[in-house]
Amino acid sequence: MRSYQDLFRTPEFTPLFLSSALQSAGQTVGGLATGTLVYAATDSPLLSAVSMFTPQLAQVLGATTLLSAADRVPPRAALAGIALAYGLGTAVLAVPGLPVRAVFPVILLLGLIASLGGGVRWGLLNEILANDGYLLGRSVFNMMSGLMQVTGFATGGVLVAVLSPRAALLLAALLYLLSALGTRLGLAARPPRASGRPSVAVTWRTNALLWSDRARRLTYLGLWLPNGLVVGCESLFVAYDPGSAGTLFAAAASGMLVGDVTVGRLVSVGVRQRLATPLLLLLAGPYLLFALNPSTPVAAVAAALASVGFGASLVQQERLMALTPDELSGHALGLHSAGMLTMQGVAATLAGSVAQLTSPATAMAVMAGASAALTLTLAATARRPVPEPQPAQAVSAARSREGWRRRVRTPD
């Protein structure tokens, strides 16, 4: 599959794409409105950052309890149900007079529900397009996410400034409900990809199997850590410049769009395989400029340039799929999504804490430096040769892996 036209001619790709676009727009508008609402009520960079990323923090709970369902539930019903739950929950956040202390339990619950969505959606995409089309398809979804963020942050910024954060939340709720409707009407009723009953035990066993391979383990860490720390920088945009936060978010989304087009469509396979580390360093580098408290135009350019580096995730996901059995693709991609979002939530909390003690600009530079250091450490670790196991150890390891596979595939 070599062109975007091939993608949109593939049955079910377009409705999945459109419903995901609506959900992405809802998340963008709703996240900005929630962060602004909390910051206005508390004047706290920490609480503002955490309010925008608490759903991501909940992903770790889902990754350890719910993720086995990613391949064991009907995809259409699961995706429609998740979008519907988000729409209702976002409408609750828009209730006038809702105290700030009530905001966090609602968004935490929504994050727990959403933790299943990444595995279901990306596993379904992999199923619809097959392995040869996944990277190009995922790049289109990433580009869509960038466009929806540009549009969503611009629209949300106007609504927040002209009307109120609660008006923006109501728009986000409507977008979620339209996404649920589009999913239900546009996708076919597919059976689950794997048999058996989802459970916490199956989730743990499959997580352990995926984590047991060194190459997959390093790929997961590369997907989670550098990316998450830079999102911690983005979580401080509201505190850094409350009046222009939408501009900064839109600039970052524009850069991400450029990176995804370049990596997903314009770069050859041979070149792409060598780009992960350079792109991750680009992702962190421009945020070091925030130590100088740049003006809004300079800050927007830095954010846009840095976000080109998010294209690294496409390279890393391609590697992850090459290392993962097809029957575990949904779970593997769900673990990637849940771990990435969890790290983003942790990084937002850490960035907010550093900003509380210093300043938003200083905290952004600190997070960027940590991201670059981790990227270099992971690259050096990946280049380090692995000692060959002794014959007895090799046999034992092979038996252990086969035992894990049998247990993972056995219904509870």
Structural class: mainly alpha
DSSP helical segment count: 20
Shape: globular
Oligomer: single chain
The profile of the biggest β sheet is: none
Report the strand count. Answer: 0
Low-confidence stretches: 392-400, 403-412
Strand content: under 5%
Mean pLDDT: 83
Helix/strand order, N-terminal first: HHHHHHHHHHHHHHHHHHHH
Distance between the termini: 38 Å
Query: Helicity level, as a percent range?
Result: over 70%
| Rg measurement, Å | 21 Å
Can you describe what's shown?
Helices cover 79% and strands 0% of the residues. The chain is an all-alpha fold. Helix 2 (13-42) runs parallel beside helix 8, helix 8 (131-162) runs antiparallel to helix 17 and helix 15 (276-284) packs antiparallel against helix 19 (360-383). The longest helix is centred in the middle third of the chain and has 32 residues, at 131-162.
Features of this protein?
412 residues, mainly alpha, globular, disordered C terminus
Describe the protein's topology.
Blueprint: H1 4-9, H2 13-42, H3 45-57, H4 59-65, H5 75-93, H6 100-114, H7 117-129, H8 131-162, H9 165-186, H10 200-212, H11 214-234, H12 237-240, H13 245-266, H14 269-272, H15 276-284, H16 296-307, H17 312-322, H18 329-357, H19 360-383, H20 391-409
Helix pairs in contact: 2-3, 2-8, 2-9, 3-6, 3-18, 4-6, 4-18, 5-6, 5-7, 5-9, 7-8, 7-18, 8-9, 8-13, 8-17, 10-20, 11-17, 11-18, 11-19, 13-16, 15-17, 15-19, 18-19
